[in-house]
Amino acid sequence: MTNVFSYSDPMARGDQVYVMRDVMGVPYQHHGIDCGNGTIIHYRKVGTATVTRTMTAAFARGNPVYTFPQPTAFIPEVVIARAESRLGEQRYNLFFNNCEHFANWCKIGKSVSPQLSEFGLRLEQIKVPSGLTRQAAQQESPQAILDLFGKALENIAIATNTLLPEYEQAQAEIAQWKRVAEASLSRDREDLARAALYKRRTLQKKADSLRQQLQDLSDLQISIQTDQTLALKRLNDAQATLD
Fold first, then answer.
1. Per the CB 3.0–4.6 Å rule, which of 14, 64, 99, 216 could disulfide with 8?
2. Do 136 and 217 sit in the same domain of this protein?
């Protein structure tokens, strides 16, 4: 793999940067924080995904590196300090804590991933039984399983326009009903407080269910990527034999 890379935009210490990557033809931005000394801190997904400081060339993988402008942001020293505070973290989650969540948290203090909203997903589209891709990756034609991976990753891709907004809305309503309960108690309206707490508990169950579904999808995406690597290796080995 080449170590050649180029900066497509002017970069500076503390900048949020990204490089284009793809999963089976689905492009996405991989984000990190430029430390200004030839290294970048980012969620490196090799083995167990870990927040790591790597050389810029390792981050780029031979592709152009772009800056990601933010209208308001912390000063560079704070951005880098925040990034360094999470070195070694291994809590990657596609929907709640991906590379873009991490970089935005470092740069602007918000753990958000606007990139997610650009992709659509409905749970009923997921038609990959547990273990199917691994079995196919080991037994079926490499090209056939790559086609299966392509369809599966297209379905789960990088995000959801259905479950994630529902989860975020439930979380907002949970906080709202908590405030209602506290206000009711301060006015000696225990009846209203109990009703508000009941609504809060109901919403919490919904939020917990949505979060688990999103976690399952994230785990499935990581599993498919692992199996995809196996299938690609088999395909490359087969092509090498033919050559």
1. 64
2. yes
Please state the length of the chain.
243
Phi-psi region of 119 (alpha: psi -120 to 50; beta: other; left: phi over 0): beta
Residue 173 exposure: Cα atoms within 13 Å on the Cβ side: 17
Cα dist. 23→20, 26, 81, 150, 232 in Å? 11, 5, 31, 8, 12
**Residue 156 to residue 128: CA distance in whole angstroms:** 10
Q: Is residue 125 part of a domain?
A: yes
Domain encompassing residue 215 = 119-243
**Cα–Cα distance, 157 to 45 (Å, whole number):** 16
In a shared domain, residues 73 and 124: no
Pair 140, 93 in one domain: no
One domain for residues 145 and 241 = yes
The DSSP bridge partners found for residue 16 are 33
Integer Cα distance of 128 and 94 in angstroms: 18
Distance CA(113)–CA(149), nearest Å, equals 24
Which of 225, 92, 216, 95 has the alpha carbon at shortest distance from 150? 225
d(CA 214, CA 101): 15
Tokens of 13: 């210490």
Q: Mind listing the pLDDT tens digit for each residue in 137-194?
A: 444 455 555 565 555 555 665 445 567 778 888 889 999 999 999 999 898 898 899 9
Global pTM? Answer: 0.54
- Going across the sheet that includes 65-67, the strands are 50-55, 39-44, 26-34, 16-23, 65-67
